[in-house]
Amino acid sequence: MASTEGQRHPLVMISAMYENGGNTTHRYLDGHPELLVYPFESQLGTALVRDRWAALYPVKYRWPVFRLGADLATQFESIIDEECRVRARTPFVSKFREHPFGLDDADRKRRFIALLEGTQPSPGDLIAAFFTATFDAWTDLRRSGRERFSVGYSPIFGVDAERFLEEMPDGHVLHVVRNPWSAYAETKRRPAPLSLAHYIEGWVVVQMLVLAAQRRFADRITVLRFEDLCTDPRAALGPVCERIGIDAAELVLTPTWNGAPLTEVYPWGTIRRPTTEENERTAAELTPDEAAAVARLAQPLLDSFAYTDADAARRAAPG
To answer: Once rounded to an integer, what is the mean pLDDT over residues 121-147?
Structure first.
């Protein structure tokens, strides 16, 4: 079997507003033999991300800003990558501690530096090396030897879709959208949920920016509705497979972790079982007033994804 270690692969980044199905989509792609799928959220942002969106979205989910002239060790450490680093460095406090994961972060850092030493890397080069070093340092990663793309997932990454696609000319964005009634009802289950207005504002902005970027990069951004993933995963994921040139017939039609089937997506995300019934049941948890407020605030984007006010009324109906 040919080794793919040390090779830079084109990067597919999954984007989704919180509770929109990004983690679920990430896990559905995990078992494909032509993909190297990042183990957790690939939180690529740095503390230097300071722009108009920094008050609305956590900087760890953003396209990174690197310190000009910093050494490679500093650049590596600046990438937040919280979920992976917690699991690698302090596994006993990680929510993924029950899932085997062999990665020494110091080894990953050494590999990252070795890949870039003697170069003047661009932000795209730094991120490509970060993914390559991660997969090469992951000792119990199941490889097919046929991998052709790396896959990452960072919530709301579509906010920076244009910058990513400019920096990485062979990159692709797979953006996942879920109806905002189910999505907001899902986030209400969190211990400290965002307010309805804050959440829907974030939902609207990321969709707006993805659609704007898609008009510029029509062949490098694929939009997927979570509802379609629930109905028929192969059909929903088929367009992105076709666009990047991998075989949709080799999709594993169940969420997996390092190729092993999962009985539920949790703890990768709050969505435990991606079914149409569960999606509709979640939306029905909203009160009529909440459902109406979601429809009012999300109205400019609803038609773009074939979501309607009638959906809101039906989902909020008692019984």
So the answer is: 97
